[in-house]
Amino acid sequence: MPSATVNNHRPSELLSRLASAEPEVKLRALREVKNQIIGNRTKKLSFIKLGAVPAVAGILADSADDVIDYNNNNCNVNNNINNILVQSAAALGSFACGFDAGVQAVLDAGAFPNLLRLLSNSNQKVVDAGARALRMIYQSKLVPKYDFLQQKNMEFLISLLNSENENVSGLGASIITHSCETSLEQKVLFDAGILRRLNSLLEGGSLSQRYSSLESLASIFKNNSELVSKFAGAEIERPLGSIIDLLKDRYPRTRLLACMCLIVIRNTSPHLLQDIGVKSKLIHILLELLDDPGQVGDEASFAFSSLIAQKEDLQKLALEANAIDKLHHHLQKGSLRPRRYEGILLALADMCSKLESCRSKFLSLQVLNLVTDALTDDSADVRTAACICLKSVTRSIKVCNVGNSFAVLVLIFNANIAYEMPIQNLSAGYFMNEMVVVPLVQLFLDPSTSVQVAALGAISNVVVDFTTHKCIFVQCGGMKQLVQLATSMESAVRSNALWALKNFVFLADNRLKEGVFSELTASLLSSLICDPEPSVQEQALALVRNLVDGCMNSVEFMFAEDGLILGAIGRQLQNASKAEIGIQGMYALCNVASGNEFHKEAVMHQLFPQMVDKNESFMINFLQSNDSQLRTATVWTIVNLTCPSSPGAFGRLVKLRNAGIVSQIKHMVNDPCVDVKFRVRTVLGQSMAFGDN
Amino acid sequence: MPVRVAESSAPSQVSGTNSGNTSPPACTLLSVGQAFSGTQNVSSLQKEEAWRVNVRIQGCDLEHGYLCGTMEALNVPMADTPIVVTFWEGEIVDTKNYTFYTGKWEASPEDDKRHWTKFPSFAPLLNQVEVDGGKSLDLSNYPYIFMRWKEQYFVNVGTDCGLTIAGFYYVCFSCSDGSINGFYYDPNSSPFQKLELKSTNEGRSGFSFSSYELQ
């Protein structure tokens, strides 16, 4: 169909027209700038580079001053000025709309206070244009926070919310959404009666007022259970009713925002909205909204995630509502926008985070193939989400019975080859195959740290493998890369790499452990035990604990390079900054102490390096710790050291007695922890075998 | 308020207002990686017979009363391989996720009581179990942990190996020494096949503990 050609001026030409002394020329130029940049980020950027924003901001400032000069003098002039104000405000709003570079340019040009001045203009069109522009600007986090704590600011905000002009009252709500973060700010707004006004906007306002007030209500309630309970109390007749009513609204965006607001309320005060009808309704609406082709559909999956995350009851309801089928269906469509792709993967991750029934469903639908495809997506957010999804599905050691039989066969498509494998133990080799492991290992070197960390998280679960498939991970270079990542500059990467290695060597055969150890080396491992980051120390100690478990020969790893590792453990235990470090370190020593005489004596040397002062023994602190796991690990070490069948047990018992440890143990016969109590009795029994009483 | 149960006394009944933990205690000897070995008596009227059995705990989720692992039966007659490995899943009787009543696997409350009472450590619990399956017992300080282990599949042989895993085990674990006693229940097999396992240290002079964590 033929269409009229639009004769657009070039940006540079338009800029010179903006500087024209002729109001008509200036006005037309402003209109054209605005029209050219609407919804076009490239155009916005090119105009910004040419300096258009300061030019438009200058026109706005001059014209705002002119309003004062010409006030009531000349009607035509005023009309021109007002038109210029409207168009310059609209152009500035367009620059800022959904584009942070535009917001920054508007702020840098000093236009913000002049836009605020427009709100007190006598002409309603000017007021409206100013409010619209400011609402767009307030969508960005680049705008400084509004200070609700200042009385005059609160008065101004209330005046905005009370305005008949929907853009002005909407601006008030946008300011709340933008700037209300702390519980103090939430309280100040609540005390000022803002909720009543927002509620009336919900019930009687326009569509855009409803959107804004739902968003601001959510920001006032977020994580503030005190305010939620006050609101849900007797403050208004049907406190949550007006929001619940909006779940049925004909506009998808209203339904989404009402869901999001109710989710915030529920997550803040879990005792509210327990009605199964409301819960199901939220699930169904959000799953339906996924079908929306626009932004609402993109955001629906994120809202769905926040609804079900960490909540088994809601995950179960969502499973019954076929959530996994629906999310799978959307994934199958392909060519998804990154935001939508990410949201769907994260929603699947939350669905599979706790329940085996959800994981079974995930596997039976063969969603796995689509998720592994996402591991190589161009968007880092999508790659991260795919890793998180895999991490969630692999968070299981349970047999996955799809259908009625454990021997159901699932087709896994790897390139063009389809092969069958039985679904058995989820981590027993099911995921330890090239289709999953190879792309995950490739992400170890991803330029984005968040992708790296997420990939390491997923592989940590995958490598807990009780079959003989661990070699696949070594063959694809995964093990060597984990060791490399253990030296990363990022502590989260180091910690997660060690976590994965710890899981990898759990119950592994000695040949595999030797491979890991020779790659790691005693010096690297001992330096990781002494890493500045406590989480890295903990994982390094847990890795050592697993390395020296199992075959007796594995204890020898501790004595490589003159016992470097053992010394590092001893030093770290002297200065353990948190219980978890003590627990892993003590279990590492406990496992060494389950070896031969030489091993037991080496542990004694770490526990009592000089025997300077019995009060200095960290063992006493550990035995007196509030953490029952730390007490348990410590008592187990003593059990191993004083095992009567070993020749040096008596000598060690004497040392322990001299250090005050036996007497401390005697105080623990009625330890509140059953596990500790029984180990204490074992120690005392062993001690009595040597005539101690 | 719940009263902690001393090992010498009967476990207390939990009052209706109790909100504390009444589940059995965590025990390091029943944690992931731990190994046990012993025998299962499969004697019949015709002959005395016992198979050597090794067990390894692979997974443990106390919050959901869940345990799983492998069971190896050695030198099983009829089997093609010297070791038959099965994967089993356990239900911990924690009064929250599971009670003493099985409610499935063809086990009636009478079958349950008949098996549980075979364990001397169950005696103090019987009265309350008869009332409500043990739902209101406080087992948080009880030195024994009761479980049901159900083999789910053969790991290294096919289903056509001539062996059956149709039944399940009533299991009693002692927190004090890590010993495990069990009775296999399958209406179609010899009754009360006894499983006796001891915690093993795999040639070490002491106890060793490894661990993994899922993220």
Summarize it:
With 693 residues, chain A is mainly alpha-helical. Chain A has 41 helices and two strands.
Descriptive notes:
The complex is a heterodimer of chains A (693) and B (215). Chain A is 68% helix and 2% strand. With 693 residues, chain A is mainly alpha-helical. Chain A has a domain at 593-693: Leucine-rich Repeat Variant. Chain A has a two-stranded antiparallel sheet. In chain A, a hairpin with a 2-residue loop joins strand 1 (409-414) and strand 2. In chain A, helix 21 runs parallel beside helix 24 (380-393) and helix 30 (491-505) runs parallel beside helix 33. The longest helix of chain A is centred in the N-terminal third of the chain and has 22 residues, at 75-96. By secondary structure, chain B is mainly beta. Chain B has one domain: Beta Barrel (Lipocalin), CATH 2.40.128. Helix content of chain B is 7%, strand content 32%. Chain B contains two helices and eight strands. Chain B has helices at 109-116, 126-132, and strands at 35-41, 50-61, 66-74, 83-92, 144-154, 168-174, 180-185, 193-199. Chain B has an eight-stranded antiparallel barrel. The longest helix of chain B is centred in the middle third of the chain and has 8 residues, at 109-116. Chain B starts with 34 loop residues before the first strand and ends in a 16-residue tail after the last strand. The model of chain B is unreliable at 1-9 (pLDDT under 50). The interface between A and B is large, with 56 and 37 residues. Chain A: Keywords: Cytoplasm, Nucleus, Repeat. Chain A: It is found in: Cytoplasm; Nucleus. Chain A: It holds the Pfam family Arm.
